[in-house]
Design a protein that fits this description.
Length: 881
């Protein structure tokens, strides 16, 4: 199909919208959705069938451009005829249309300028089934029209002569006259179409709707846009009341009375406003209610209690807390991709300052990062974009560490609220207890729960709960996206809270309480518990706080405290292993207490294994095995078994026996369960299929009996499934995979490695069932994830799957090349699978020999598989993610 040509020069614009769509959506969304699909088909067919170019669709509206006015008129007439003749699957739809001609600025397939705005206002004045046009369009068409006279249109400076296509009778036009005082924004609203639609749906059902968000989120701009769209619906108009300058609650009534043109006879206008509005049908917008919230709540209660049809749309940083109120949280703009609203807003505002500004590969990621660090807040993004005339995106990003100075406005833009002034406004409305807690929350990294907030602020938990709830209601605290009754501060609010914390001299005390709270949370009593996944599941949400607290301890050279702290972290922060390992080793240089040294050594074992530092792993295991403490000796021996098993199964068994002997005093059964898991692991590593299957069943039973659910236990479950796959029963493996999926669901929540594990098994399941297409897709997902580098040591696992895929595809030479490119699998079950694939390809002995010769070569173990994986992804045309 040929590419559509974007019209330019003098054009005719056709704007359309569905009459009463908000009400229709509210009555029956499914039926309305069906009718709207039919409507879209009619509109697009009529427009494109008359050489029109649809440049925007927003909600129920179409915006199209035509090179010839006659084509635009013909398209409108054809569309109205088709709509009138349509058999609707849901409610019948009536569409209003407006036509205007002139030159507009075209940019990226979209159009801007007064001509476009006038076309939109002409459409808004029409009724369903009616087509309106301006004089330039009338002069260019020979169709029969009806003169409707001169009309005032919103945001159009001079009255406009309008004509109606055809001679049908309609009610008086919805021209402005004196039906609104809505401000005329200087810029267009971006990224809020879904918000506007949701708010209009709420207004169709409720008489009080409050938009709440932190300052700078664009609540006022959204309310104006909604009011503008709602204007045709309200017989007595849409009225905007700006309460920003009202400093005395007693002034709210006077501000409202002045906006709606009500004559004030009483000393308190609030007394008469509800009765005045009860006989009218209007939308009243109360903007910026937070500092006079009680007076606004009193007004709203009176209006709702008086009855009638008048509806209130309020904007505030906290809800009014009135019966019948519906709250809509205005969230931040999306920040992830180049087409997302936050990035589009930045570019739009930057172009207004610097017309030559545009995104390219060098700046797109930087702008995305800027918008993300500014939390998608429209005010902050606009202030940042206004600096592009003198600062590059890279310079802007660098300056965000001092964002309140960077985004202070400058020049005549000081008339616009600065980012600091906007947050100051919210902060000053808090009472002292709320201010104190808000400052303390600046101490956290990432999310926090109520208990942590109470501990860091130094207040009782019940009080902290009340204060956090209050701050949430004032849009100063956000809920964590993960839920679980956790909260967070937007980065901009966190920076503000930190500044206030320093000003009040409270930073050191809050930091110390933070360290003490998370030291307790990370505490592990015994070496055996360090790998306890149930414990990890309780605290993994505080990963960022744990790392931050450990950094503070290190900066203060509090080595003994840091040692105990670090011991509880490695198994739950695998993504942070590269940063934690040097900290553990620095701590080892300063700690003398033997027990703390043992704990640090075990942490070092976990971390070196995570980053595939096998020489470091063996050194740490050997040092731990040489401890004077029998339990530490056992842990060192147990971990050495992982490496020795590839070379000598008998010696690995002896090391596990040393671990069991060191825990003869264990009465919980957990040490025996852990040993059973490792026996299964070593059997898998040595390719003992029958032993791995039998020992997996023994280990699972032992773990369940001892309530010992470690990461090794989880891997044993998967090893059991892979062992069954290796023995050639895809049906059993399919069932086992279903069991594994349920088992891994909770673990995946706090360790993404487990998602890779289940994807590994899924790929084997699909390939074993001869479903090469589905298996290939599962392999692709796993391989792309491995190449992304998000988790270490996945490259060899991905190569094992790719080799099996190539084998199933019949490309045996490539399959052999791939399996011999592996270093070592990340887990016992992937090593087991690798052995089996190598056996099927006839190269298992060669692979074992290569491994024994290169066991301590990091390039062979890590870098070589990484290069092989990327080469195979490139050959297959798969993105690296």
């Amino acid at each position: 199909m040929p590419e559509r040509v974007v019209p330019s020069g003098t054009m005719t614009f056709l704007f359309t919208d569905v009459e009463g769509s908000t009400r229709l959506w509210a009555q029956d969304p499914d039926a309305m959705s069906a009718s709207l699909r039919s409507h879209d088909e009619v509109l697009r067919t009529a427009i494109e069938g008359h050489d029109g170019y649809v440049f925007t669709t927003a909600g129920d509206a179409f915006c199209a451009a035509f090179a010839r006015a006659s084509d635009a008129v013909a398209a409108a007439r054809a569309a109205q005829d088709a709509l009138a003749a349509r058999t609707w699957p849901g409610p019948p739809i009536r569409v209003r249309m407006g036509l205007h001609m002139g030159e507009a600025e075209e940019r990226g397939g979209d159009y801007f300028g007064p001509v476009v705005n006038t076309a939109a206002r002409v459409e808004a004045a029409a009724h369903g089934g009616q087509v309106l046009m301006t004089a330039p369009v009338r002069a260019a068409t020979g169709d029969e029209v009806t003169a409707l006279g001169s009309h005032a249109l919103k945001d159009v400076p001079e009255p406009v002569e309008l004509w109606q296509l055809g001679t049908d009778a309609f009610p008086p036009l919805r021209s402005v006259g004196t039906r609104t005082n809505l401000p005329s924004p200087a810029t267009r609203l971006l990224g809020r179409a879904e918000d506007a639609r949701a708010v209009r749906l709420l207004l169709a059902e409720h008489r009080l709707v409050t938009l709440i968000a932190v300052g700078g989120s664009g609540k006022t701009r959204l309310a104006i846009d909604v009011g503008d769209a709602e204007l045709p619906r309200w017989r007595d108009g849409v009225w905007f009341v700006d309460l920003t300058a009202v400093t005395d609650p007693a002034g709210v009534g006077a501000a409202v009375a002045g906006a709606i043109g009500m004559e004030v006879r009483a000393s308190d206008p609030l007394d008469g406003i509800p009765q005045y509005l009860s006989g009218r049908q209007m939308l009243l917008i109360l903007d910026n209610c937070e500092h006079v919230v009680d007076a606004c709540a009193e007004l709203a209660e009176g209006v709702l209690g008086a009855g009638g049809e008048t509806t209130i749309l309020a904007t505030s940083r906290e809800w009014l807390d009135v019966d019948g109120e519906r709250v809509y949280h205005v969230g931040p703009l999306g920040t992830e991709g180049q087409g997302d609203p936050a990035i589009a807003l930045f570019v739009d505002r930057a172009v207004a300052i610097e017309p030559g500004f545009s995104l390219d590969p060098a700046t797109a990621d930087t702008v995305s990062t800027i918008c993300r660090r500014l939390d998608g807040l429209p005010l902050a993004i606009e202030l940042a974009a206004s600096r592009v005339a003198v600062l590059s995106p890279a310079m802007l990003l660098e300056g965000l560490d001092d964002r309140f100075r960077l985004l202070s406005g400058g020049r005549r833009r000081q008339r616009r609220p600065t980012l600091q002034a906007t947050i100051d406004w919210s902060y000053q409305l808090l009472d002292p207890e709320e201010q104190q807690l808000f400052r303390a929350l600046g101490t956290f990294a990432g999310t926090f729960d109520i208990a942590a907030a109470a501990a860091v602020a130094g207040v009782p938990t019940t009080l902290a709960s009340d204060l956090v709830e209050s701050l949430y209601g004032r849009s100063l605290v956000a809920r964590s996206p993960q839920g679980d009754q956790r909260f967070r501060l937007l980065e901009t609010l966190k920076a503000y809270a930190e500044d206030r914390l320093r000003e009040e001299g409270e930073g050191e005390a809050c930091r110390e309480r933070h360290v003490q709270h998370f030291a307790v949370l990370s505490h592990v009593d015994t070496l055996l518990e360090a790998d306890d996944r149930l414990r990890a599941d309780r605290i993994v949400a505080d990963d960022a706080n744990l790392r931050q607290a450990s950094e503070w301890l290190e900066s203060g050279e509090r080595w003994d405290e840091l040692a105990a702290f670090l011991f509880g972290m490695p198994t739950i922060t695998q993504g942070g292993a590269p940063a934690l390992l040097p900290r553990v080793r620095r701590c080892l240089e300063h700690v003398d207490d033997p027990d703390l040294v043992d704990r640090l050594r075990l942490a070092e074992v976990f971390l070196t294994m995570t980053v595939a530092d096998w020489p470091g792993y063996i050194e740490a295991c050997t040092a731990l095995a040489g401890s004077a403490d029998p339990h530490a000796q056992g842990q060192g021996s147990l971990r050495l078994a992982l490496m020795i098993a590839r070379l000598s199964a008998e010696e690995a068994e002896g090391l596990i026996d040393r671990f069991v002997a060191a825990h003869e005093d264990d009465t919980t059964g957990r040490a025996r369960a852990e040993a059973a898991c490792w026996r299964c692991t070593t059997a898998a590593i040595t390719d003992d299929l029958e032993g791995a299957t039998r020992l997996a069943e023994v280990a699972i039973a032992a773990c369940d009996a001892a309530d010992h659910h470690s990461s090794t236990w989880a891997q044993v479950h998967i090893t059991h499934g892979v062992a069954l796959w290796a023995q050639g029963d895809p049906t059993v493996l399919e069932h086992e995979f279903a069991e594994l999926s349920a088992l891994m669901a909770n673990l995946v929540r706090h360790d993404p490695a487990y998602l890779a594990y289940t994807n590994f098994v899924l790929a084997l399941v699909r390939l074993a069932a001869d479903d090469t297409a589905a298996g290939g897709e599962a392999v692709r997902r796993h391989a792309v994830d491995a190449a992304s580098g998000r988790l270490p040591m996945l490259d060899s696992d991905a190569l094992i799957l790719l080799a099996e895929l190539a084998r199933c595809e019949g490309d045996l030479d490539r399959a052999r090349e791939l399996i011999l490119s592996t270093g070592t699998g990340r887990t016992s079950f992937s090593i087991l699978a690798g052995h089996q694939v190598a056996e099927r390809l006839g190269v298992r002995d060669q692979g074992r020999q290569d491994f024994s010769e290169n066991l301590f070569d990091p390039d062979w173990l890590v870098e070589r598989p990484r290069r092989a994986l990327r080469a195979e992804l490139l050959r297959r045309g798969w993105s690296e993610g």
